[in-house]
Amino acid sequence: MTAGVVEAQELTKRYGEVLGLNRFTSSIAGGITGLVGPNGAGKSTLFRLLAGQLKADAGTLTLLGHPAWGEGEFRRHVGYCPEHSALYEGLTGEAFVTTLLRVDGYSRAEAGERALRAIETVGLTEARGRRLRTYSKGMRQRVKIAQSIAHDPELILLDEPLNGVDPVGRSTLTALLETLQKAGRHIVVSSHVLYEVERLTDQIIMISNGRALAQGDLHRIRALIDAHPHVIDLEAGNPRTVARFLGEWDHVTAIEFPGPGRLRVRCRAPEEFYRALPPLVVREGLDVRSLTSADDNLDAVFRYLSEGGT
Amino acid sequence: MTISAPRYGSTSSERLGRTRRVLAIVRRELRRRAGWGTVAAVVLAFVSVAAVVIVDAEFASLTGTLRLTTLEAPFESPIWPLLLLLVATSAGAGALAEDTGNRSIVLYLSRPIHLIDYVGAKAIACGTWILIAAAGPPLTAVLILTLLGVVPTSIAVSAALGYLAVGLLATIFLTGVALSLSSLTSRPLYAGVGIFGVVLSLFIGAAAVAAITGNLYVPYASPVTLLRSVGLGVFGGPSTPETDPATSAAVLAIAGAVLGAFAAWRASRVEVVSE
Question: Which of B46, B57, B143, B171 could disulfide-link to B131, CB 3.0 to 4.6 Å?
Answer without folding.
Answer: B171
